[in-house]
């Protein structure tokens, strides 16, 4: 009698992908509060045991889905000017926020951070973290060129603004982030940062 | 036999206040999705009829509670410099975001805007609107003094940043907005805006 090998080898990656897609769809439809392992299993067409073999519970499963929402893979932009680099970062942010998988879940996800420390931890390390580090690399290069002051608080603030301003405009005000807006954002920050 | 007069006169304001307090407490505790007229009535110690005499339904009731979350009553700051005025606006925003009634509901409220057009309308007109106009008055005065360009998109962006940066830092990153942060925010925007 043969036994299936134990451990990661038995977890079919295509099934994991299907489940994580189902998590994102459920999240967008019903929000984090009403999302359940059962609903996700039903939507993905698998048994609940397939979920529990992968994650101990809902928080870990959702965290995993979040972490797949798009970590930037390109190196930080290097256009030849701080303004151009900031413009490129703003454009990346807009592209990410308008991704079909991302747009409907952003606000619910942010609302959930206050209630779910585990999810907040994953959001900050796996989702916001890589984006923030990429933006920060652009600013650190400008510090090395002597174009902006080496002021930790100020640089962190600029990283905040690059993410929060486009989010705010789209989600809170319900307006589009057009090229004119991104031009002003890059111009405002580049001039505001200059030594 | 006497009848109670119909209309607004029968609505005891102290009862209205108690119900609106209960709405904010429920909102903070369970979020918008699970908030119900029944739960609010129970918490406020009144019958559901007392609620329906005041509001046709949940959305209108919550909107009314939101609208009471604090409209700025002071005139726009006039400290003698754009930087000082922006600093004062940032400080107001921090004070508002950290109000005990406001802090626990902000993120759920923002998440709900995408699902409830009626609530979004009230949020934008009654809650964000007065704050945005107050910030905009500061910028328009600086335009008249010839200190900043008369650029609608840029001025709107700066109004966005004054609200979104402190919100982002507190709620999304879970960090405090200290005086150093507000100093940088005012400095970044004042220098970034200068003609």
TrEMBL record, chains A, B:
Keywords: DNA-binding, Transcription, Transcription regulation. Residues 36-55 bind DNA. It comes from Actinomycetospora atypica. Residues 13-73 form the HTH tetR-type domain. This is TetR/AcrR family transcriptional regulator. InterPro entries: Homeodomain-like_sf (IPR009057), HTH-type_TetR-like_transc_reg (IPR050109), HTH_TetR (IPR001647), Tet_transcr_reg_TetR-rel_C_sf (IPR036271), TetR_C (IPR011075). It holds the Pfam family TetR_N. PANTHER family: HTH-TYPE TRANSCRIPTIONAL REGULATOR RUTR, TETR-FAMILY TRANSCRIPTIONAL REGULATOR. Signal peptide: none annotated.
